[in-house]
Here is the input.
Amino acid sequence: MKLTNTMKQFTCIIMFLAATILTPLGVSAQMKTSYFMEESIQRLDMNPSFVPQRGYINIPAIGNIGVNYHSNFLSVKNILYPDPDGEGLVTFMHSSVDAGKFLRRMRNTNHLSIGLNENIFGFGAYARNYFWTFGLNLRSETSLSIPKEFFRLAKELHAGEYNLKGFNAESDNYLEFAFGAAVPIFDYLTVGARVKFLLGGAHASLDVESMQVNINDNEWRADMRGRFNGNITGIDFSHLAGKMPLSEVTDAIDHFKMSIGSWGLAFDLGADARLLDDRLKVSLAINDIGFLAWSKKSAVNGTFDNLSVAFRGYDFDAKDADFDRPDKVIVDVDAPRRLSRMLTATVNIGGEYTILHNAIGFGLLSQTRFYGDYTSTELTVSANFRPSSWFSASLSHSLVQNRMGVIGLALNAHPSWINFFLGVDYVGFNYGKEGIPINLKSANFYFGLAVPITHPRVGGRFVADTQKN
Amino acid sequence: MKFHSKLFAILAISFLATSCVDNAYDLNNVNLKVSLGTDGIILPLGTLKELTVDSLVRRSEIDELVTEEGTYAYKISDSVNNKINAIKINNIRDVIPYITPRSFAYGNIQFPELVQLPSFASDAPIHLPSFNFGNEPLERVEIIKNINSNYASGTTPPAGTPISLEADETKAFNVTLGNIPSEVAAIEQLYFSGATQGTPMHLNFSLGALQSVLKEGLLSFTIALPNNYTLSLGSNYGGTATVAGNTLTVSNFRTGAAETDFVFYLARRAVTEPISAARTLTLNDQLRCTLHYVSTTNGATIPTGYKPTLTLKMSPQIGDASLRTNDIAPTPMRSSSNMDFTINGLNRIARIYYIALNSSPSNALTLRATPTHIPLKGAVTVKITLPKIFDFKTGVAGLSNNVLTTTLDQLTSPSGVVLPLEGIHPDDAEVRQEQLTINAPITTEITPSFPSDSYKLSSLKTMNVDKIGIKMDNTQLGVDLARCNFAADVPHNLSIDQPIDKTFYVADKVTNIAYAKVVDAATNGEAVLSVHLAIKSSFLSHILFEHISIQLPQFLDVEHPNLDPATNTIYLREPIEEYNGSPIEVTRIVIKGVRNVPIKEKMAQLKGNIKISASFSIPDNSPTQRIYDKDGITFCPSVAAPVLKISHIAGGVDLDLKEYLQPMTIQLEDVRKSLGDQNIEVNLVAPQVRLHVCNTIDIGMMGNIILQPYDFENQKLSPITIRDIYIQPAEQNKMRLTKLYITDQTKAPGDYTLCHVPNLSNLMKVIPSKIEVTFDLKEDDRREQSIEITGEDYPIDIKYEVKLPLKFKDEATLSYSNVADVKDTFDDIDDYDLTAEDILIKLDARTTIPLDMAVTLDFLDNKGMILDDVRAVVSAPIKGYNAATDGAYKQSLLNVRVDIKEGEIQRLKQVDKIRYTINGESVGHGSGLSPEQYVTAEIKLLLKRGVTIDLDTL
Here is the structure.
């Protein structure tokens, strides 16, 4: 069966996406380019003190969608290589691609993560001078780590030993109910807060603590041990304990019972000050201060050990392949425990100076994310254009890990009857013929569609328009 | 607005202008070939774990290959079935013919109509207790008292002077009775003996010397005993004496005599005292006597001399007594005697079992007892055990199982006890001189029983009975002859002699029969003669055959425990019962065979006599009616013989063996094919042929066997003749196996006959396609022939076994080729775009097989043609193992280079078969193939340039 060209492209894209890695592990659900786009609804997620001029109702399911992936190794350039024998490309597994060249492009630990932020339902509205918001969001984050040794094994397949320690995967999925309010304290200062109730859906992690692959002329062998954690709301794993086939664990998933067991709580706090006749805007926000506690009853965690497979050729007596593999994967389930995970807190500090009556603004955003054992900071400079009362656009450039990064672009059309948003944070300079960025190792995409529901508040660059409405 | 819009447009265009498109990255043109291990991959293909020769042989399923003494050998065996046609001999019917009955005259039998039973008497003892006690004298009672007066002798009181005399005396009165029998429970009253009213008491009052000085005075006195005594008066003494119970009083009896006498009587005493354990009764009483006399003096001087005296004397004696007895049950007393009687007039009667009596009421026994007085009140039971010979009628009171239980009163009554009779069982009573004497025992047991009661001792004292006479009246009994049962004393001797003359057909192959075994033609089991005896008689219903003898003809060979072989006669010593009209089998005789049977014109003749003799009598317990002047009896013996089938003959038989033993062929085609498609000289060591001839006929065969081999083209090779072969005859009708061992060796296994053929290995040097075996045999006429006659053919089965040990001589070669069908194996391989150039299979082989094995592989297409696109070259042979020079095994390292054109694995799809050829050459002289020899190899696949897969084809 031949693949069509479209399918071939799709395969490449999937390979690209699958190998993408998040620079600092942990998906950023916030689009930095939109931070200074005053009428965008998306930027409200980054600072609860931000208020738009109009109330809004997100169109269900497509009101605010954000998809992002990040990696530290997976780019088109690292996967596909020009064919030295002619036109076209070859994969990194092609014999013409030198193993050393390919492996030098791989990190010792190669990360990949994919995130989804889906606003199922949301609205915001003024009440007196307060701006209230509510949002129901689906949050999903999945990450994967692959050791460099894995690629060496695939590429070389030499006799010898391969240590594939470091394989792991993790996924968190939950619902978020967010209630926010922004309050003007002074004419020049607005503060806001948002409380978020979290309902855990599913959590899973797999950590391969050891995987030894041994290839020699007598035997090809792999031995693996590791640890796993799982938590699925509505599934009762509490009766499992001790050593058992993995199938017993998975069989438990068949007995789903609707319940709420895992929950969490988080806060966003923010302040927005407008100085120098609103030409200078300074804002500060701390987001996602909170936790998500996974239920003990729906938790399962344990280890697997001595999971081995070996191939020794053909068994002439049995007339079958001499292939040792366990009949059943045996896992040792530990006593269930409640798992509380702190959310990845984010501090956004922004400043924008506008010129030309606010037609153009130059912004600087510092976004710092606090992971468990390290922090990551990105600086984003942006030029923000507000050519009309119903349209604005931003162009950004982020410095990632103190290296020159990538360009971001966001567009926002917000006439009186609709609010449309489209934006990406990573826009490369080199593209393939199909428009696929060649060098980018991360990507995101945001889309939003909302319906304004109130008159605009008086103010801003188009005061007359606001007064008229 | 416009300015800003333009500015924005300028910026947007500028941004796009700074981006560039790299045309080299065209995702529509991606080569998806993936190469694994481009610097070389080595892949374990597996380890051939000690692939033994045995497992190889089993996989190749060569049925003829076996293991013997640790070495493989081709072993071909088969069998050929020949036969000698059946020998026909007719069955023998009615070997014993019908025996004509013979009649004998017979005598008279009589029995009397009356039987006389004489009278019978017998004394039966009875035991009664004795009550003879109380006869001894009692203690005498005597009181003598001198009475003082108030005046002394020599004094002279004035006349009219009152004088008074007083006396008061007491005396012990003891009564003792001894030897009181235990049957006495209590004595209630004692009666004292005397002339009239009891034991007399004599009282005397004497004035002595005073009588002379006194005038007439008044005398008063009393005699008193305890209350349970009774006194009586003989005279009232002028009205002055009175008795009140136990006290006697005399008041104012006028007397002046010197002596005055009184007589009174001691009548009886009521007894309440118990009888002591010593069976004595003791009564301790007291008697008191008071006296008072007053008178006046007459003025005389009181003389000297006797003083006044009171005298009382009594000698008591027991006259009788009232007593109460205990329950008296004396020990039963038994006595036995014989009732003898004789029955006369028993003509020709040997034994009598039952004499039935007619219904006359006089047919009864009458028993009586002599009258006897027994004062004890109660019953005397008499149990009379009458002889068992008497058959009494039922319903007689007190009679059960010939035991009569009655009382003495009934027996002493005028009619006595009548016992009606049905008959008499004179069991085992043998009649002697026409007379039967019966001695029948009779037993009598007397059992008295007297309950407790009151008696006068005097009535029991006289009881003196020690036996009771039992007697039976003289009796005449009327016989009912029709129902009598007896045995007649009528012995007689019977004898019949019957001639036999019988012929039957035999086949012409049989020249004479010295002896022929026979069986029952119907069952093929033993042939059994059944001899029956019978009589015909109008009066005998039950007789006993005795002293039976059956003399059989000499041509019959029979088996019987009572056989006298000298005369071929069977004597039956035990009597055999026979019932009239139903012949009884008296014995069975097993016919083993017939002997010395002459044959004339295919007919065998049996000639002789059978003689049957017996005596008979009427057996015991035979129900025989009275017989008067009956006719004789007819003796009817018979012999039932089955149809005889001859199962084996000994004598003379004439056979043509060449007609029956056809040549046979030993097929070696499979062996040859397993070694290749051409004539192969394998130079085998010590080939051998084993022949098993199974002979089921009792005829030995002798002569030669000729082995004729044929080569691959069916051309005759040099034959081999095995001389002086002897095939053993069947032994005792059982097949016999003759085992011949044809070899170039000088020894044969223990139970084989060695047939040494020095050049036999030449016969096997080129493995023949077949060996034709011809039997040149004739019958062994040095001994008498003996043949089992089965009616069926006589199989002669010949089994052969050719053994070719796989031991090689010098430089023996072996070529083996086979084709493995791998059709469809690589059908799916062109679904994948796989390329692998420079494919090398490396083998590290170790073996103990003593053959250098050069292996070639050819890949064939569906037409059997060798493919050019796929080739395999084996770099070197697998070296054979030489035990003399090599160690534990021989190691060989070799490569199989698989050359697939342009490395395109999918070209394997053209492969339909793989032909592999192994050319073996022996290593070392005398080396052989054995099951435990093995080859082992480690196999690895080396892809020097890895393998490439085009994902585009997925």
The helical segments of chain B are 2-18, 53-60, 408-412, 457-461, 657-660, 669-674, 760-765. The radius of gyration of chain B is 71 Å. The first strand of chain B starts at residue 20 and ends at 21.
